């Protein structure tokens, strides 16, 4: 049964973080939390990153000198948003979306099993 783009996706509930003392996570889970944290920080500073990237485009050795101002603005933004509270928020988001990830894994496994039937 396939869903059409007009069918709304069922809302998967978000779970709260288990406690204020976070559970120890495996290294791969910590890497997922870290990636979520970095993507959130990059999202806050997307405009500054784009300005620096536009300046550095096509430059090699001269980029650090020619784009120094844009680089400083970008780094200041990243430092401003790279806080412990942002790490905590990323961890909470990771825990909150674990049900959605579990459902996605189950769907992929079902698809894989269906494809094996045809082989």
TrEMBL record:
<dbReference type="InterPro" id="IPR013892">
    <property type="entry name" value="Cyt_c_biogenesis_Cmc1-like"/>
</dbReference>
<feature type="region of interest" description="Disordered">
    <location>
        <begin position="1"/>
        <end position="29"/>
    </location>
</feature>
<dbReference type="GO" id="GO:0005743">
    <property type="term" value="C:mitochondrial inner membrane"/>
</dbReference>
<keyword id="KW-0999">Mitochondrion inner membrane</keyword>
<keyword id="KW-0472">Membrane</keyword>
<comment type="similarity">
    <text>Belongs to the CMC family.</text>
</comment>
<dbReference type="Pfam" id="PF08583">
    <property type="entry name" value="Cmc1"/>
</dbReference>
<comment type="function">
    <text>Required for mitochondrial cytochrome c oxidase (COX) assembly and respiration.</text>
</comment>
<keyword id="KW-0143">Chaperone</keyword>
<keyword id="KW-0496">Mitochondrion</keyword>
<protein>
    <recommendedName>
        <fullName>COX assembly mitochondrial protein</fullName>
    </recommendedName>
</protein>
<keyword id="KW-1015">Disulfide bond</keyword>
């Amino acid at each position: 049964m396939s869903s059409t783009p007009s069918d709304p996706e069922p809302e998967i509930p978000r779970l709260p973080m288990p406690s204020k003392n976070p559970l120890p996570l495996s290294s791969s889970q910590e890497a997922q939390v870290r990636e979520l944290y970095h993507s959130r920080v990059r999202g806050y500073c997307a405009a500054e990153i784009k300005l620096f990237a536009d300046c550095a485009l096509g430059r090699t050795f001269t980029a650090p000198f020619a784009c120094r101002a844009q680089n400083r603005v970008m780094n200041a933004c990243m430092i401003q948003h790279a806080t412990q509270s942002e790490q905590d928020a990323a961890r909470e988001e990771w825990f909150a979306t674990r049900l959605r990830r579990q459902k996605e894994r189950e769907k992929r496994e079902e698809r894989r099993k269906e494809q094996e039937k045809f082989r």
